[in-house]
Amino acid sequence: MKVFITRKIPQAGLDKLKNAGIEIMEWVERKPLPQEDLIAFCRQCDGLLSAGYNNLDAHFLNECNHLKVIALHSVGYDNVDIAEADRLKIPVGNTPGVLNTATADVAFLLMLAVSRKAFYQHERILKGEWQFFEPTANLGIEISGKTLGIFGLGNIGFEMARRCIGAYQMKVIYHNRNRNLKAEKELNAEWVSFEDLLRRSDVLSVHSNLSDETKGKFDKMAFEKMKSSSIFINTARGAIHNENDLIDALQKKTIWGAGLDVTDPEPAHKNNPLLTMPTVAVLPHIGSATFEARNGMAEMAADNVIAAFNGKKIPFPVNPEIYEQL
Length: 326
What we know:
Number of domains: 2
Helix content: 25-40%
CATH architecture of the largest domain: 3-Layer(aba) Sandwich
Order of helices and strands: EHEHEHEHEHHEHEHEHEHEHEEHH
CATH superfamily of the largest domain: NAD(P)-binding Rossmann-like Domain
CATH topology of the largest domain: Rossmann fold
Distance between the termini: 22 Å
Shape: globular
Structural class: alpha/beta
Strand order of the largest sheet: 8-7-6-9-10-11-12
Largest sheet: 7 strands, parallel
C-alpha cells in the first residue's frame, strides 16, 4: 500500500506509517501543488494524506475514486466535497482535539496583543520612534471584567473561554446552532442570538467551521452592530469574515481592533492595510504550530491511513455515515 503526502509533515507521522509497512510518496517542494498534478500522484497511490490547503472537490474525487482514504492533516475539512466523498464511499478523516490548546492560546495572544497595540508598538521601536514619553499616547484598553463573545463554542472556543475567565474574570456569551450545555454548566456561558452576540461582545472570538452558512458571516452589517470599542478575533477560517468590510470597519473606527490568525486570501499580501494598523495583530495561520500539536496531528492522520489500509473503520472520521452504507 502506498500513500501520497502533499507536504512535509512531522517525523512522528512518517515513522508511524513506515512502521506499518506503508510506502510513502511525498511532495517536498515549497510551493502549491496544482490539482492536476495532485491527481496524477494520487493515481499512483492507495491513499492521500493532505497537509495544507488542497482543493478536494468533486472533480478530484471522481478522478481519484480508487482512494481507500483521505486523511487530512487538519481539523477543518471545508476544502473537501464531503457529499461527493460519501457518494463514492471514500472515508475522510481529520485531526480533532489535538490542536485545541494551541489554537486557543493564539486566540488569547491576539486578544492581548490587540488590546495593547503590541505589534504596532514593536514596529515603532524598529523604526526608531520610541524616543519621548507622553502620558496620553499609545493607550490601549483593559480586558478585565469585559464580555467575551464566542461564535462557534466548540472545543477550541471552550478553551479560549476558560482562559479568559481564569485570567480576567470575563463574562462569556456565545452563539451556536445548538446550545453547549457543558459550557453553560462549567463556564456559566450564556447562549444568545447572533444579533445579541454582536451587540454585547467586548471581544468577539470566532471558532466555527467554514460552511455555506458561516462564509462571509462577519460583513459590513455585522461590524456596524458591534461596539465601537470591540475587538474582533478570528483563528478559524479567513473566509468567515469579509476582509474588505473588516478593513473598512477598522478605518472608520466602527470597531476598535482585530486579531487574525487567518486572512482571506491566504497568504496575506505584504501590502494588506491590516498589517500596518495600530489596533490590528495578524499572524500567518500558526494556530496549531506547536511541536506537541503538529506531532499529534501527524500521528492521527497516520492512524487514519493505517486503519483504512487494514480494512478497518478510520478512528477520526469526518463522514462516518459511509460505514452505515456499506
